[in-house]
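Figure 6 in text form: structure in, sequence out.
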């Protein structure tokens, strides 16, 4: 079958869903949204064993995304934080521009613990639509959206370019602007981002990578999909994605890639798509190749591998 080459329809579809995610947050009281509706296995080594609670807001947004895929007849294989892996059963025939098999990757609400305490910072919803070839490693992004659910600032990409703007409730972007990373070349001038908010991450990360963190100018202790977007938009120079989950990687990495960032594993290898939703990753995303090589050299000197800590 010959598929439509344009990704415009996929981006429009993704932006409309992200707009509704903001609406879900707005119309749900924080007390109701913060209710724990599911718990995960807390056994050490199991999936997200250090973070066992699923909030209502997580499930509501994820459920909306899944419902939209089915309602629009999308042949989708979902890879999402709460549901894990799920094959969508389409309820109708899709419009021509959306008639192809896809992977739908989502972190419906990144920042749940901050939301639970009503701290309106680092609340994001992230989603990405990838092609679904016979071999997953050959999948390519068609569209991706990472939206700040408090401010509506949105980073997004189609198959060619990345942008930012403010998203309204109907999925329309106000004043879209193409984005590009910084020209920072020295680690001593660099702003680095890495996830440090949970003790599970903070202590081992700070201790093991002190040799890198000591060399930068500033550290933002956040991560997830917005870490890639922060580099893509020039706000951050290095995103150090250590042991990050599948659903936090693929929405953001698409936007960073289309913005022209340098991206690799800790050993300098390309990051390929995968459909194992429980897999974790060690990835570096930097503003340019010069800075990237300096980070890689430090990791090599300290014998850090792609599988370090995983």
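Output sequence:
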């Amino acid at each position: 079958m010959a598929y439509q080459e344009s990704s415009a329809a996929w981006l429009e579809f993704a932006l409309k869903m992200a707009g509704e995610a903001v609406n879900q947050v707005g119309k749900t009281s924080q007390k109701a949204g913060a209710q724990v509706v599911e718990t995960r296995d807390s056994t050490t080594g199991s999936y997200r064993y250090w973070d066992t609670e699923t909030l209502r807001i997580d499930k509501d947004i994820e459920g909306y995304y899944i419902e939209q895929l089915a309602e629009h007849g999308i042949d989708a294989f979902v890879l999402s934080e709460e549901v894990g892996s799920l094959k969508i059963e389409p309820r109708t025939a899709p419009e021509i521009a959306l008639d192809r098999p896809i992977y739908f990757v989502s972190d419906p609400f990144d920042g749940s613990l901050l939301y639970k305490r009503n701290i309106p910072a680092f609340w994001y919803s992230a989603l990405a639509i990838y092609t679904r070839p016979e071999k997953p490693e050959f999948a390519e992004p068609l569209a991706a959206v990472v939206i700040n659910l408090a401010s509506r600032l949105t980073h997004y990409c189609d198959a060619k370019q990345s942008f930012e703007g403010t998203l309204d409730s109907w999925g329309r972007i106000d004043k879209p602007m193409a984005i590009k990373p910084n020209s920072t070349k020295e680690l001593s001038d660099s702003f680095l981002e890495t996830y440090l908010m949970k003790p599970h991450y903070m202590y081992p990360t700070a201790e093991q990578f002190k040799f890198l963190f000591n060399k930068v100018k500033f550290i933002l202790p956040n991560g997830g999909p917005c870490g890639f977007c922060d580099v893509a938009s020039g706000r951050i120079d290095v995103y150090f994605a250590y042991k990050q989950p599948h659903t936090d990687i693929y929405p953001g990495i698409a936007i960073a890639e289309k913005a022209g960032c340098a991206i690799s594993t800790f050993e300098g290898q390309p990051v390929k798509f995968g459909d194992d939703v429980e897999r974790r990753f060690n990835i570096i995303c930097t503003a340019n190749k010069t800075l990237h090589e300096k980070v890689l050299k430090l990791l090599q000197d300290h014998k850090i591998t792609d599988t370090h800590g995983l």
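Caption detail: The mean pLDDT is 93.
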